[in-house]
Design brief:
Rossmann fold; alpha/beta; 52% helix; 8 strands
């Protein structure tokens, strides 16, 4: 990685980029146990099927699943699930190429951030465990120590990743410095494309993304 003037940020998608596959369903299965997990899937089945058939938006199907799986659960209980998942399951799901890129960015002193549609309830643990400097993701609402099953932010997917990242950069570096940021971005699905297009250097499924117009070195 060549030296550049100004801040350097490395933005990583999580599911399918840092990990080999989706993590939300395995996390819910770990926490709920198979009977509770299958019940949540059954109750959200029509919405999930609609999403698979491209008849229901990603955020709508996800909201229904989260409500069926998490509404009324104490935040302490779910935090225990997350710590268990991060210790037992996460290390086996990580991709070597992504960890190598993350290590290179960290060694170079770059600011590393996860930008993901997955929820904060377990990504907070993953971000700390992997040594990230910041986390931008989908927030879940907690009232009086219990999850409502509702999102507290917009689903951090597609263009929302760009909106959240653009809002975060001046908060992190200041308005003047944010305009000088050199952005590296890593993703694996169409939902990551807007973030990849924002970046000066982009990787898609472990390979440099050639479709990004050159923005100079």
């Amino acid at each position: 990685m060549s030296e550049v003037a100004g801040p350097v940020v490395a933005a990583f998608d999580f599911d399918g980029t840092l990990t080999r596959r989706d993590t939300l369903l395995p996390f819910l299965a770990r926490g709920l146990g198979w009977p509770g997990f299958l019940r949540a899937l059954l109750l959200s089945g029509p919405w999930m099927a609609g999403y698979a058939l491209k008849l229901v938006r990603n955020d709508v199907a996800k909201a229904r699943l989260l409500k069926m799986a998490l509404a009324g659960r104490s935040s302490a209980e779910v935090a225990h699930w997350a710590a268990d998942w991060a210790g037992r399951d996460l290390p086996r799901q990580l991709q070597d190429w992504a960890l190598a890129r993350l290590a290179q960015h960290r060694q170079a002193g770059h600011c590393c951030v996860i930008v993901s549609a997955s929820p904060d309830i377990y990504l907070q643990h993953a971000a700390r465990q992997l040594g990230f400097d910041a986390l931008i993701c989908t927030g879940l609402e907690v009232v009086d120590g219990r999850l409502t099953g509702r999102m507290s932010t917009a689903n951090c997917h597609g263009e929302e990743k760009v909106r959240r990242l653009k809002a975060w950069l001046p908060e992190r570096f200041g308005a003047d410095a944010a305009s000088q940021v050199t952005l590296y971005a890593y993703g694996d699905t169409a939902g990551d494309m807007p973030m990849l297009r924002l970046a000066r250097h982009a990787w898609y499924r472990g390979e440099p993304w050639r479709d990004v117009p050159s923005r100079g070195e």
